[in-house]
Amino acid sequence: MISNLFDAPLPRGLREQTAGMSWDAVLNTFATCSGPVQLGGWERAAAGEFKATLAIGDRVCTATASAVGPIGALTAMLYEQGVAFETLEFHQLHAGENTATFIRGGNGAAEEWALGWSVDSTQSALTAIIACANRLGV
């Protein structure tokens, strides 16, 4: 049971969607980053300043944003590139040395859950945002 992997219960809406699924099935469904939106390089340039390399379809660009944190920065960068994305729920759970980030995101027309998984909590969150944008069918 996947809930045994974490130090807290899965988010309520996701618990229902993952009931009876193996961890591999959850990863294949919610953590896939295949799709038109890809995150290449990521860096915090200075306090509140972020820089990323984004691929959206066949277009690659360097994006920058000023934000309180990386989630707001990536969301702003996506918006500037024409990708509508809003974080509706954000949960981070720990599993040993790893962090799982569960995001429910929307684009004004649909909502989806996605998962990011990494030893680095920021990378986990950024991966979850990209996975969610792709699940929304950008």
From TrEMBL:
It comes from the Bacteria. Gene3D superfamilies: 3.30.160.270. Keywords: Transferase. This is Uncharacterized protein. The lineage of its organism: Bacteria, Bacillati, Actinomycetota, Actinomycetes, Mycobacteriales. GO terms for molecular function: transferase activity. The keyword Transferase applies. It comes from Mycolicibacterium confluentis.
